[in-house]
Amino acid sequence: MNSTHRTAGIFSAPIGFGVVTLSIVLAAASFGPAAEPQTPDPDSQAKWEKDIQTFELWDRKNSFPANAVLFVGSSSIRMWETRQCFPDLPVINRGFGGSQIAEIAPFVPRIVFPYRPRVIVFYAGDNDIAAGKSPQVIADDYRDFVRRVREKLADTPIYFLSIKPSPLRWSLWINASQANTLIRDFCRTNTGLHFVDLAACLLQENGSPNPVLFLPDNLHLNAQGYKIWTQTLAPLLRQFAPAEPAAPVAAAAAVSSVSAAPAAKPQAATDSAGPWYATKNSKVFHRAGCSFLGRISKENLLEFATRDEAAAGRRPCKTCNP
User: Fold this and answer.
1) Least enclosed by CB within 10 Å: which of 105, 202, 269, 285?
2) In 118-255, where do the E strands start and end?
3) Distance between CA atoms of 214 and 225, rounded to whole angstroms?
4) Residue 33 CB partners (closer than 8 Å, separation 6+)
5) What is the pTM for the complete model shown?
6) DSSP class of 65
7) CA distance linking residue 285 with residue 279, whole number of Å
8) 112 falls within a domain
9) Domain count, the chain
10) Is residue 172 part of a domain?
11) What is the tens place of the pLDDT at every residue in 217-252?
């Protein structure tokens, strides 16, 4: 099996179902017109409320780094061992589940503002494509995310990581590629917005996704895939490494503007955070947000506060790799 991958360049090349722009674009010029405000979907917010409350409870009980590199987005962010992959950076990871861009944006006051990050790294769009959203809607949803961030963080750089090609969703790549192009163009004309191509490095010489870089679900990256992403992104983030370790922000002071949330299980300091889940009769356990959890009824769902409890007599899910 061919394990060759491509690295980001500064040209465009036709591949498969569309065109991947192989440049890393650093934006310039004015911020441009803001996206139209979107009305939050109550159902979507309720869907992810537990995940957000878990973040907030952890923040209330622990300190977090000041001037952090904040990773925000869907499961591709959540499953990225960012603390280990970027050891020289003060990292916070706030990725959750199978979220879409429009589902992440309303939570900006709760998963972005409390940290006052030095830079934001954003990845989402996979699930939007799978849900049938058009490239234009996806681009507009990202504009809305940026608009919300800019309400309080006018100068914070935001790096959009391109929607990735995957074997499972390769038939949808033309739409993903078009969404990438629209977002790239938006970043190109707005100060402080950056588009980072992390798609080309996942492709084989024949232009198709390299299966050796993905988990058995053919959707999420494995350790080798994340290593390639890290090697591509690290040079861009190196400028945000502190000259000396920054003092952590006291949790109570930093999140004083966040309303108290109902009790939830604390999130671990690393990206291998709980809670963990299994079914009553299953020999497999999962991370919070695993796609398989959506198929399990509440009556049949077991929740564990620690990984050791979940792993007792069970093996880790190959999809979410808890």
Assistant:
1) 269
2) 119-123, 158-161, 193-196, 248-249
3) 6
4) none
5) 0.67
6) E
7) 8
8) yes
9) 2
10) yes
11) 999 999 999 999 999 999 999 999 987 655 566 543
